[in-house]
């Protein structure tokens, strides 16, 4: 098969396989584009059954992405579990680089790489999924002259990913899956200009090169942004707030990257884990004080009872704080 004139890059997560099947079922094997897909998968899973399922519903040649594979038109490449899928000089790069938005593979990593390599000849698509992966990636594609599309959130099983992109204002088309396939075919079949000299923003070129090498340097990240009073939730290093683009983003020098929303989600999880540990330790202290109070006598026993009542108050406050987001009701008394 010939090299594609256009890349269609797709990012999806929860509910993604049924949506992907419906989308690619309408794409012909003569499509003058290659389709590259990031579906969030568990690290210990295998992509082979998903490739088999897709193959049963489309004439595209479906395969699990392999490093250094030559990209061909009429083919669909699925990112393997726990590996980023990138593009370089007409070939696939499959790497185990740092996570982006807490994901590997990440739609943002694929979208940025494709945008830098193919410029205006990229069609970026975000389908059903949770959280925010793909939002920054669609902005990368727009900044390089490409076209961005999302599944209509009203029909998405999990609308968070397309809604996040819409809030960021980086979407050209919002369509149900039946119309999305037809528009992709139409756009892929139209002549598209090549990226002229200087058309690819220098910051995206640098970010793409960092992803290809797996790790960057503080000097390189200093070119992209300025130090923020925040630490990377994945490695504990400093975070830089990136200067370019309308989507607020952060990255550390080892390569972890986050939108502001995904960074907030990571910090929420870390805080919750810390508070549950604190609650466990306070419960243990309460049990110890209870035993001490029951075995003591006189003033000393009264003091332990007072300390016991005090820690019960703190335990109930902390438990209510932790449980309130789950059921909205007050915590039971200890």
From TrEMBL:
Statement: the UniProt record of this protein carries the keyword Hydrolase: yes
Pfam families: CheB_methylest
Protein name: protein-glutamate methylesterase
Domain of life assignment: Bacteria
First-level EC class: hydrolase
Keyword Hydrolase appears in the UniProt entry: yes
EC nos: 3.1.1.61
Domain CheB-type methylesterase: 2-184
Keyword set, alphabetical order: Chemotaxis, Hydrolase
Residues of the active site: 13, 40, 133
Coiled coil: none
Reaction(s) this enzyme catalyzes, per UniProt: [protein]-L-glutamate 5-O-methyl ester + H2O = L-glutamyl-[protein] + methanol + H(+)
